[in-house]
Amino acid sequence: MQGTDGHVVAEGLTRHFGTIEAVAGIDLLMRPGEVFGFLGPNGAGKSTTVRMLTTLLRPTSGRAWVAGHDIVAEADAVRRSIGVALQDAAIDPLMTGRELLALQAVLHGIPSSASRGRGQTLLEMVGLTGAADRRVGTYSGGMRRRLDLALSLIHEPQVLFLDEPTTGLDPNSRFALWDEVRKLNRERGTTVFLTTQYMEEADTLAGRVAIIDGGRIVAEGTPEQLKAQVGVPTLQIVIGHGEDSLGAESILMRFGEPAPAPAGAVAVRLEGGASAIASVVRALDEAKVPVEALDLHMPTLDDVFQEATGRRLEGAAESQPLEQAPNPQP
Amino acid sequence: MSAAVAQYAALSRRSLLTMVRQPRAIIPPILFPLMFMALSSAAFDRTTQLPGFPESESFLQFLICATIVQGALFASIAAASDVAHDIEDGFFDRLIASPVARTSILAGRVMGSLVFGFVQAWFYLVVGSAFGLTVEGGFIGMIGVTLVAAMFAAGVASLASAFAIRTGSSEAVLGAFPLLFSLMFISGNFFPRTLMDGWFKTAATINPLTHMVEGMRAQVIGGLDLGEWLSAFSIALGFFVVGLVLATAALRGRLAAN
Amino acid sequence: MSSAEVTWGIARRSIVLISRLPSAFFPSLMMPVFLTISFAGAFSGIVDLPGFPAEKAIDWFIPMTTIQGAAFAGITTGMGVARDFESGFYDRFLVSPASRASLLGGSLLAATLRGLAPLALLTVVALVAGANLHAGAMSIVVLGIACLGIGLCAGAWAVGLAVRFKSTQITPLMQSGMFLTVFLSTAQMPIELLTGWLHGVARLNPMTNVLQLARQGFLGDVTWDTTWPGLVALTGMIVFLVGFAYRGMQRVIP
Known about the structure:
Number of helices of chain B: 11
Radius of gyration of chain B: 19 Å
Largest interface: B-C, 30 and 26 residues
Number of strands of chain A: 14
CATH class of the largest domain in chain A: Alpha Beta
Number of domains of chain A: 2
Order of helices and strands of chain A: EEEHEEHEHHHEHEHEEHEHEEHEH
Oligomer: heterotrimer
Distance between the termini of chain A: 68 Å
């Protein structure tokens, strides 16, 4: 099925570099208007896949269609329909933001009468109106990414490809970019294909996620589906000084299997899911067990990755307990 | 004492190996002067018949010494930019922190260039011979020429190293390259001074490189001439001494700053 | 027509960026001036050779060094393309619907126009140094035509290499290619006074005719007989080298 506007379809997409198999047969089916996340560690083949889908690289074998056009046979039509913001936002430091927008408009055949207005709107959208006439060499990393995003949208593409859009950015810039992507998708219905090595990014932004490792998709689904496949949430409690921890343990074990926990804490895998937490709290309360801290650890996409590959994602942040009670003194 | 000698030897060897292991850096400075010599000798062949042209068999015989000096110049500058690289990379700071004698840091680089300049000069003479070059001064003449080339290479290496140590930037060193190229050109090296006039001739006469190359050339086109050779060698030695003084001062400055 | 706009937009960027990087700008401007002074000064004696077509060395050398400057300007344009590939900026062009021909055309247009850069400065040098402009303003006009042509040739050569190697490490090949083309001809000596292998090579080298075209106004009158061989040579070189660049561009997606 080749699809029409806003679709991205791939069948057995493969790319070799010499003897290295960077992408080993990828199948994709993206629906128009969805945000699709491609999650994987460095070297997994994310950028190679994006480069093939955006016509910057020819596949060794397999086929793909973007917005209904074959990426090899109808490359020009693909290019008209896509916006691309690649890794490392390659931007000429000697040009100003406005000049780059104007050049981008020319490349996409937008008449100058229209490009000025569109450029201004986009600059406002990404918050760069003040810096627009300064050379890009003076921009911060976050500003460059935002400009790159604006540049990718000047011709109002149906499909937007974002290759690691927040790698190397500080948290504020990252959140700002996430907001912009969400708005784009909501307000314009732009289909977004996003690659990332950060599980929080995939989790927060993507409606569906494919996890890629070693050039292959190892898991696919909505973030919730994927996480549910891995297991149930873990509940960890820290009880008060000198209290009877055995009593707390036996209560918790009614709700599931024990889980590893740091000293002074007890943890259980909640068979009933996160909603069972109310029952646990009631049970502990009835037994008058003083609880000093309570932490619910949901499975993450990093856990999904580990299930599928036996390794952790690089740079995956461990979720921190909400509070750490001081160690009980003997 | 023998420890110091061992250090000198080790750093010279490193300097030479660095040069030899980077073909992309080394081949252009070696090949470009040869290419230029081949072209100029072919193009200017007829000019040897001009009245006033020094008594030489061919333009090649006239030009070979300038080519040798040009080669020594290019290669030594490349070596000095390695010094700047060392500073940029921090290798320099590691050397300073080590018990290696301070002067051997510099000496290694300079000795490396001296040896390279000597070998390169012989290489050019051999290539020239393959194309019909005869050196009137014979084997001794060739030794004389290559010794001057070696000393000049060491001189340029120390001058450029002084600059490299002072600026710590390999880009600055390579940027000085056009300046030295000019010095080579505004001279009697590529064409006889006897066929020049005006301000250019005056400038060429003032240029010490002119006299150095003419002293070397005498051994090639005329036969052994000790006076000419001494004139050439002392100019090369002068470069070396000035270069060493400046480089040592620059080194001291950088060490004091650390 | 948007192809023309793409071509002009890319050319414009290339030209405007020169002024924004003065550290690269001045050396390229000074190089032909320096070469003129060095060559005309060092080799001034060659005019005394019997049959030498010029009275003064400056008349003989200035057209050659101006053309060298034009070639250098073309190469610099190609180096800019190589830099754009290295930095990933060129992806921006490749991912857009702009045709490969218009992308190439933009760089080639820039190279051609930049070929004129040394002309103004060297005309001033020529006048100051007392060069003979036998044919008056026409001397400069034909030199300008040669500069445009050589700027385009050097640009096509350099861009052709840039789109194949996608790296500035190929710069020495860009430069030596052009250098050899110019110097394996009548750059230093007229064809009548060349001997041996160089005479043979220069006779076959189209650059010989281009240099003749460029020099004629400094050596005598501008005539059709000394012009048309140069135009044919330029056309041949342009067709060959632009073809080289175009073929590279067609295969730019790996």
